[in-house]
Model the fold of this input.
Amino acid sequence: MTDLLTLAASTATGLPLGITEGGSWLLRNAWLIPALPALSFLGILFFGKRMPRGGSELGIALVGLAFVLSLLTAAAWIDHRDNFEGEEVHRVVAVVEHGDESAEGHGDGPAEAHAPAHPSLAVHNTVTWFELNDVVFTVGTLVDGPAVMMMVVVSLVSLLVHVYSTEYVAGDRRYTHFFAFLSLFSASMLLLVVSENTLQLLVSWELVGVCSFVLIGHWWEEKPNSDAALKAFLTNRVGDMGLIVGVTILFFTVGSALPGQFGSFSIAETNALAGSGQLSHTALLVASCCLMAAVMSKSGQFLLHTWLPDAMAGPTPVSALIHAATMVVAGVFMISRMYGVFFEGFSIGGSSINLMALIGGITTLIGACLAFVQRDIKKVLAYSTISQLGYMVMALGVGAWTAALFHLFTHAFFKACLFLGSGSAAHAVHSFDMKSDMGGLRKVMPHTYRTFVIGSIALAGLPPLAGFWSKDEILVGTGGWGLFGGTGGNGAYTFMLVMGVITAALTAAYMTRCIYLTFFGEFRGHGTPHESGPRITVPLWILAGLAIVAGLLNLPKGFPLVPESLQERFGHYVEPVAAYFPSISHGTPSWSLAIASTLVVLSGIGVAGWYYFVKVEAASKAAGESLTELPDGLTTKYPLAKMGHTFLVQKYYLDHLYTDVIAGGIKGPVAAAAYKIDQDVIDGVVNAAGENAVKAGNLVYHRFDQLVVDGIVNASGRASFGAGGELRKIQTGKVQDYAAILFAAAMVLAGILIVIV
Amino acid sequence: MLLNQFLLLAAALFAIGVYGVLARRNGVLVLMSIELILNAVNINLVAFSAVRATVGGEVFALFIIAVAAAEVGVGLAMVLLLYRNRRSIDLTEIDQLRG
Done:
C-alpha cells in the first residue's frame, strides 16, 4: 500500500501525481550530482591537508564534474520533456465528503480542468530509508524542470566560486577547511533541489543552514564575525521551527486523504492532493503560513531579514555563493517546490493580495531603500539581494511562478558577478568601505570595472540584459497593467505592480551610487590598488557574459524578432505541466509595460547619475578632493530628510526592536513585576507570618523547647556527631569513590532482585 | 534471533564502561566510559525491541542518544572549565568536598 511502484498498476481509480518511475538513466540517477560535492567534502576533510594545493583541486574537480553532469542532465531533461511517453504514477486516495462519489474525487479540481496535452512527468526515484510500523520513510530524487535548472545554476556558480576562492583566500589559515565547507554547502543545496519528500528537504535545509554558519564565521577569531554567524544561524532557527511545524501539518493533512496511512511526506503527493481540492483549506493555509515563516528567515524576507547584511562578515566568495545560488534562494525554491500547497493555501489565483505577495512586496521596497545608505559595498549588494528576493517571493505570491524562477536564474548570474566583483575590488584595496577606501578604481581595475557595470545594468533591468527580461515578466505576471492589452495574470495585483516598479527605479539608482563611489572620482584609500589575477577575472567575465545573454532564454511569447520555437524556452522546459503543479495562468507580455518600466529604470539612473556624476563631481572639483556626497545635500538642509536618513541608517530600528524591545522588553517588565510581587505580596505574607511566629515561638520556647526538645536534640546531636565522625571517612570528595559505592549498591540490589524474583 | 550475543556484547561494554568510570583518572576518559555504559543499554534496548518486533525500544534508544549528546556537551564543558581553573583534569585531585 505504501509503495508507489505497486500502485502504478491501479491507474483507473487513482489520482495522477504527474510523476513517472521511468525516464533516462541520467534523470533517474540525479543523486549523483549532490553526491559528488559531498564526496569532495569528505575527501578534502580527510586528505585535503596532504594534497599539494590544500584540497582545492579536489573540490574544483568534483564540483566541475557535478556541473558537467548537471548539463548532461539538463539535456536529458529537454529530451524527456518533449518526447517522453511513459507511464504516470497514480495514487489511490480516500473519498472525502466534499468530493465526488468516486475515489477520484478531483473532478472540480484545477488539475482536472486543465489537463495538459503532454504533461512533463517528473522523474521519481526513491529508496526506503526506514520503516516505522506502517509508515515508510523514503529518500530519493524528484527531477523536473526547476530541479534541473537549479542544479545547473548551483553547480556552475559553485564551480566559479571554487576557482575564484583559490586566489581570494590564498594563504588563509583555514584554506583546506574553507574548501571542504564550500563543497558541503554546494552538496546540501543540490540535495535540497532534488529532494523527493519534505523530510529530506528539511534535512538539506538544515545542512545549508549549518554550512552558512560555518562559512560566515570562517574568520571567527574576530568577534563581529562569530556574532554574525550566530545571528544568521539563530535567526534561521526561528524560521526552521515554521518549516518543521508546516511539514508536520502537511504530513498529517495528506494522511487524511490517503486510505490506510496516517501521513505522507512525498512532495508530489502533497501538491497533487492540494491541487485536487481533497485537502482542508484551513490546514493548507496554516501550513502555508508556517512554511512562509521558514522562507522569511532563509530567504531574508522582511522582519527576519536582519541576519543577511550581517552575514557579509564571511569571505566574499561565500557571500556570492550564499546570495546567488545556495542559501537564500533555498526559500524561494521551497515555495516553488511546494507551490501546489501555497497556491491553494493562499488562494493565489483570482485574488488581489495575499500574505506571500505582500511580504515579498514590502521586502523588495525596504531592501532597496536600505541599499542607499550603506558605506560597505558588500552591504549594498546584500540589501540588493534582499530586495531581489522580495521580487521573487512577490512574483510567486502573484502566481508568476515561471517569472520568479527565471528571475532566480538570471539573478544568480549577475549577483554572483557583482559579489565577486566587489570582492575583487576589496581584495585590491583591503577594505569594503566605499566612502573612505575606494573611488577611481576604473582606471586600475578595468576588468572588475567592466564586469561590475554589466552586472549592475543587468540588475537594474535595462534591455537587453538578463535582469530586464525576468523583471518584466514579473511585472507582467502581476496582471495589474490594463493599458494596451497585456493582462491575464492570476489576479489583479495592482499594488504589487506599483511596488515592483518603484523598486526598479530604486535599484537603478542605488547601483548608480555604488558604481560612482567605487569606480569614479579619485582614489581615497591607501596604497596602490592593482587588478586581480586571472583566477578572479575569468569567473567574473563568465558570469558577466551570462548576465548579458541569460535573459534570451525566455523571450516573451509573441516577440517579433525570433521564431516561435525560440520563445519562452525557459518556461517551456522549467515550468512543470503536471498534476503535482497547479495550473497557473500566464500574463500576456505588453510593450507598453516594458517601455514604461525601462523609462522608470532610466529615470532612476538619471536622478542618481545627475546627483553623483554632475553635482558631486562638480563639488569635488571645487573642494579639491574626492567627495562622496554633497556637503550641503538634502539631509543637511531638511530635518525631515535627515530623520529619514537616520531611520534608514538604523535599518528601521529592527535590530533595536529585536534585542532591546522584544528581548529587553520581555526581560525588564517581567523582572520588575516579579520584584514587585516579591516585595509587596510575598514579603508581606512572610513578615506577618514571621511576627506571629515570633509570639508563638516565645511561648513554646520557654515551656517546651528548653526542657523537652533540647534534651532530645542534645542527645541525638551527640549521637549523630559520633556517627558523622565515622561516616565522614567515606566522604572522600572523589567522584569515583562515590561511583564505586553506587555500583556496589546497584550490584547488591540486583543480587536481592535475583534472589527474590 | 541471536539475542544472547547482543546481551553479552552489551554486558561486556557495560563492564568496560564501569571499569573506566571507576579506574580512569582522566575526566574525558570517564565521560567516554559513561558513553560506553549508555550505549550498552542502547544495544540491549534495540536488541529486545528487534526480538519483540516493537519500536518502543528503538525510540527509547534514540532518546538516550539525544540525552547522551547533551550530557557529553555539559560534561566536556565542565572538564574544560576544570582545566582552565586547575590546569589538570585528574579526577582524583578534585576533592574539595571531602568531609
Notes: Chain B has a mean pLDDT of 90. The radius of gyration of chain B is 16 Å. The interface with chain A takes residues 18, 21-23, 30, 55, 91-92, 94-99 of chain B (CB under 8 Å). The CA atoms of residues 79 and 85 of chain B lie 10 Å apart.
